[in-house]
Amino acid sequence: MSCILPLVLFGSLARAAEESDSPAEPAPGAPAEPAPGAPAEPAPGTPAEPAPAAPLPPPDLSTAVRAPTIDKKELRRLKPSPFHLPAHPRAQVDFTAYTLEFGEVKLGVSNITVGIIPHVQAGTSVLLDVLGIPNVQAKVHVTEKGPWDLAGWVEYDRLVRSDFDATLLTGGGIFSYQAAPPLGLHLGASYTSGEISGDISLDTIDQLLWFLDSGAEAVPDHGGSQLKVQTVNARLAADIRFNRRDAIVFQASGTIHSKLDRDEALFVPSFLGLEDAMELDGFVNPFEAGMASVAWQFTWENWEARVGAGLSSIPGAWILNTWELSYRFGGPTRGREGRMLETWEKNADDLDAAAPPPAPLPAPPVPKP
Length: 369
Fold this sequence. Notes:
Blueprint: H1 4-21, H2 72-77, E1 105-108, E2 111-117, E3 120-125, H3 126-130, E4 135-141, E5 148-160, E6 164-180, E7 183-198, E8 225-241, E9 246-262, H4 274-277, E10 282-283, E11 290-299, E12 303-312, H5 319-322, E13 324-329, H6 332-353
Antiparallel strand pairs: 1-2, 1-13, 2-3, 3-4, 4-5, 5-6, 6-7, 7-8, 8-9, 9-10, 9-11, 11-12, 12-13
């Protein structure tokens, strides 16, 4: 009995070890585990994978046509030149409410103007500077969008000599309206206050020009004021734009009111109608102190020119509105146009370097009846 008990106990332990090494049978109703190496079944609710698409039949090229290619003539027509680009309604800045863009510079025969900050430009008259008359101009564009634009401007001129000095201060506003895509209307008004002090005579007239004045001094030494003048001026302009290069400009301006306070002994040179201007007091007929002109405006990539003709009460004064030559550079708009031109030039170079066009595709076979 004592020998049988250990044998029974040893047999029970061996059977327990064998059962632990064999896989457990799943409980009734439980999903069976996949056999090793068999693909896993998707979980309940998972959408079934789509069946692989059947291979597409080869394309039928019997009716295909070759894509059109561009030739040099068509490429020249697409060149982004001012003649082909649409008109820029806010390009003109001299008789309108518009200003140069930030960083844009205009070097003209009569004026040098710079866009110092957005919607603000400042400049000076080169001709007056050469004559020894320091001057400064500034204009502020106070609107940004829409067909209506408004700007204010100011100009200061000063002539200082040993026997006299003259000061001129002008301020005004300009209203611009884009009435239609090709037409712009511009209306402006200004007030000018001037004063001349000292002795002006035939003996001192050469002091008006610094290169003729051999005894000019930095500090003037003269008597009291001899002339004070206040004027109100008006200007009307219109431009018809055909494209970015060509436009017609109409301008009319004149003094509509004048007030003078002068000494009888004041000498007034008898040229350019100045002696007649000294007689204007109160309301002024625009035909007595005005001008009108028409001109053609050219605007290329950087150069601008204006040529025309007109009439004026002061002989030759209309030339100031009808003749202009300037060079402009800088600003966001010209930068974009420059990049467009560079892209076009690259395309033109690629077209020149391209191989001859391939032969046309063969005609599709005619089906037999």
